């Protein structure tokens, strides 16, 4: 009888630890800054899909996933686009869930690493569109969240960490991957996309979510965080942002909750699709704080016993 009580106590302790690993984890500003700076280097020449510049970024992302011991989902990290004439690829990392049943359900965490490349004109001005906010900032969030789960292995559901190419060409990377995963008949629970999170908003919430009324994702994020992290932005609806980022491809293919979180609200940043969208303009403490807040949210998404996030 004593042994039974000891076993139950250990099981309870292990369960508690698995549910709270994110509480003791600290996202480091220097890691956030290092990833963001590397992605926005002039060597990448604006990371336009199908160019030598984005190939350099692809190698950087592959090496990062290798460094933190994240496995590729396919045979390699590279998922070559089937919807783009020039060779370019999504970079896809994978952590299998630790629950024998829930590991068959997937969550995608994504951001696009391509941008618009070079602006040709006056040779005396900066011609490189480095795309720090759009969307090296979102990719940086994906990389930092991947770093946490690579260490904690605290996810019951399986996670795909996707750095999309071809977003700026018409969501081509996410369209291609969504079709491949649909053909595999994977059980995709939800997709959360990170887009332009490099500068803070002056509002009573940290970020807004696209397609606010499409699902209960906003409410569940706030519930999981224990605070109002995401809110509704009227401009999101008027600009139809729900259908303008990579989340939309998965919504169309799978009809599951698939949305984007963003902190660019058309009032707080003047360098959208301009060479001025540079690393130096990014608010690293804001990014670090937001990523820190989102890690336990995603941990709870990955570990909920049922699919709590639902289409409205």
Tally of alpha and pi helices: 9
Shape, per Cα inertia axes? globular
For the secondary structure, the number of strands is 9
How would a crystallographer describe the biggest sheet?
A: 9 strands, mixed
Spans where pLDDT lies below 50 across 5 or more residues: 1-18
Order of helices and strands: HHHEEEEHEHEEHEHHEH
| Assembly type | single chain
Strand content: 5-15%
Count of discrete structural domains = 1
CATH architecture label: 3-Layer(aba) Sandwich
Give descriptors for this structure.
312 residues, alpha/beta, Aminopeptidase, 9-stranded mixed sheet, disordered N terminus
Can you offer a commentary on this structure?
By secondary structure, this protein is of the alpha/beta class. It has one domain: Zn peptidases (Aminopeptidase, 3-Layer(aba) Sandwich). Helices cover 39% and strands 14% of the residues. α5 packs parallel to α8. The N terminus is likely disordered.
In short:
With 312 residues, this protein is of the alpha/beta class. The chain has one domain: 3-Layer(aba) Sandwich (Aminopeptidase), CATH 3.40.630.
Present the secondary structure layout.
Layout: H1 2-20, H2 29-39, H3 52-67, E1 71-72, E2 78-80, E3 89-95, E4 105-112, H4 132-152, E5 158-164, H5 172-184, E6 187-194, E7 207-209, H6 217-225, E8 230-231, H7 234-238, H8 247-254, E9 258-262, H9 284-303
Parallel strand pairs: 4-5, 4-6, 6-9, 7-8
Antiparallel strand pairs: 1-3, 2-3, 3-5, 7-9
Helix pairs in contact: 2-4, 4-9, 5-8, 6-9
């Amino acid at each position: 009888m004593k042994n039974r009580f000891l076993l139950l106590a250990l099981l309870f302790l292990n369960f508690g630890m698995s549910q709270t690993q994110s509480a003791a984890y600290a996202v480091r500003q220097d890691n956030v800054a290092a990833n963001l700076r590397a992605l926005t280097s002039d060597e990448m020449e604006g990371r336009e899909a199908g160019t030598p510049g984005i190939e350099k970024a692809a190698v950087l992302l592959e090496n990062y996933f290798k460094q933190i011991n994240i496995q590729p989902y396919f045979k390699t990290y590279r998922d070559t686009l089937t919807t783009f004439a020039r060779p370019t690829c999504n970079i896809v990392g994978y952590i299998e869930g630790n629950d024998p049943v829930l590991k068959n359900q997937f969550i995608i965490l994504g951001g696009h690493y391509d941008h618009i490349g070079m602006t040709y004109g006056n040779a005396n001005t900066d011609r490189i569109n480095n795309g720090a906010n759009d969307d090296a900032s979102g990719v940086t969030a994906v990389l930092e969240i991947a770093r946490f789960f690579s260490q904690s292995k605290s996810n019951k559901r399986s996670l795909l960490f996707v750095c999309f190419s071809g977003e700026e060409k018409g969501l081509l990377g996410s369209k291609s991957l969504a079709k491949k995963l649909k053909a595999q008949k994977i059980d995709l629970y939800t997709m959360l996309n990170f887009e332009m999170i490099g500068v803070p908003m002056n509002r009573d919430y940290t970020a807004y979510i696209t397609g606010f009324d499409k699902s209960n994702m906003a409410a569940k994020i706030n519930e999981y965080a224990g605070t109002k992290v995401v809110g509704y932005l009227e401009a999101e609806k008027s600009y139809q942002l729900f259908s303008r980022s990579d989340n939309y491809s998965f919504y169309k293919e799978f009809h599951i909750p698939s949305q984007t979180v963003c902190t660019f609200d058309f009032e707080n940043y003047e360098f959208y699709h301009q060479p001025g969208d540079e690393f130096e303009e990014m608010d690293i403490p804001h990014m670090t704080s937001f990523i820190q807040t989102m890690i336990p949210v995603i941990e709870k998404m990955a570990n909920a016993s049922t699919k709590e996030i639902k289409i409205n």
